[in-house]
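Give me the fold.
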Amino acid sequence: MFQHTDFKLWQGRVDDEEGERALRWHQQVQALQAGAAPGFALLGFACDAGVARNQGRTGAKAGPDLIRKALANLAWHHPQPVYDGGSVVCEGDALEASQALLGTHVATAMAARHTPIVLGGGHEIAWGSWQGLAAHAASLAQPPRIGILNFDAHFDLRQAARASSGTPFRQIAEDCQARGWPFHYACLGVAETANTQALFARAESLGVWWRTDQQMLISQLPAIRAQLETFLAEVDWLYLSIDLDVLPAAVAPGVSAPAAHGVELPVIEALLDDILRSGKLKLADLAEFNPQHDQDHRTAKVAARLVWLLARGV
């Protein structure tokens, strides 16, 4: 089902004495309405049915509103408006219907020239996000070449009888094949310990560009950026998915599957700068924030920081 956001979540400090340049997010975020000037549209996906199917730690359903709360008090430095477009709430195991509904809201936002940032929720969010992006792309006279960049410890290419948080990019690959579109997929931060040989073989067969967590060190950043530049040059639009379990467990403890190694936040942020400079970002989502396992709101703050960076642009 769809649920409008309770704007009581958007509360924070008010510095009236400092004037108009002392604003914070809670003072600037508006409800998404028809006819609004183009900006960033926050959409929630309150769901962890896919995580449950994937035998993971549930709790991500509570993520979207807590990311909103973490964003509320952050300082406003943003040139474009930010809107809150509400949340899709998955009831029980109604995963496929919820993903389809998310896709409808993503496509509607994109048709209105907004850039959606979808707040999860488990990584089953990706199949819903993609459905909206693909529907909008297919409505154009000339569908663009779409690249998918996933910061993640897992490929999420699993072959399974039922869709889950482990299958979305395999589902996207199959959808691309059915549409006659190329599958441009990159997965950065892959943990060899968390992905079977079968998953590596599937990634290779699909032409995936990946780097393991051990190949994502800050000393390797020049080489990573060069590869990213090549990847971006081959696509017209970029869909960015950030699974918070790509970060070290000390930085992001509140996830379904905490990372023993992970990728340092400064590496992720440097690559986000390159992505934003490309001008090709059309859709982003954040997955796997699990408040039940967070400590001192660390993961919520990291998730909010990433959203803040995306919406600020360059």
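The beta strands are 2-3, 30-31, 40-46, 82-89, 115-120, 146-151, 184-190, 209-212, 237-243, 281-287.
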